[in-house]
Amino acid sequence: MAIGIGIGIGIEVGLARQRWRNWPELVTVAKLIVFAALTTLRNLDYRSEVLLWQQTTAVSPHKARAFNNLGHAYSAAGCGVLAEAAYRHAQALNPNYTLARDNLASLIERGMAASAPGC
User: Which residues contact 51 (CB under 8 A, 6 or more apart)?
Assistant: First the structure.
């Protein structure tokens, strides 16, 4: 897929260079193509809520909110053990984060924390 995007960018830049001798327009076209490609790649993360928050925690490993949201996504997917781990990680990052504490308590209360270990 990345090869196709690269070829497409090369063709478009070549065509734009022939059509427009005005470099600011060429730069604008190139930026639009790059941003469109990056948007397409980012949209792959939105295939599922779990994938979105896994990717977010990978690039922001020190944000408790991201781990809380990952825990919520795991919980919604029925992955109680993973949800518990994500909530506990969120609490470790920010002990005063009450939402993560409350979500963990709710998960345990519903008996989901020990469920679906292979999820």
Answer: 45
Q: What is the pLDDT of residues 92-104, one digit of tens each?
A: 999 999 999 999 9
Q: Residue 118 has what pLDDT?
A: 55
Residues 96 and 54 in one domain: yes
- Amino acid, single-letter form, for residue 18: Q
- The tally of domains found in the chain comes to 2
Per-residue DSSP letters for the chain?
-HHHHHHHHHHHHHHHHHH---HHHHHHHHHHHHHHHHHHHHHGGGGSHHHHHHHHHHH-TT-HHHHHHHHHHHHHTT-HHHHHHHHHHHHHH-TT-HHHHHHHHHHHHTT-TTS-TT-
CA 3 to chain centre: 23
Taking alpha carbons only, the member of 113, 84, 114 closest to residue 100 is 84
Q: What is the CATH number of the domain that holds 78?
A: 1.25.40.10
Amino acid found at 103: N
71 versus 32: which is more confidently predicted? Answer: 71
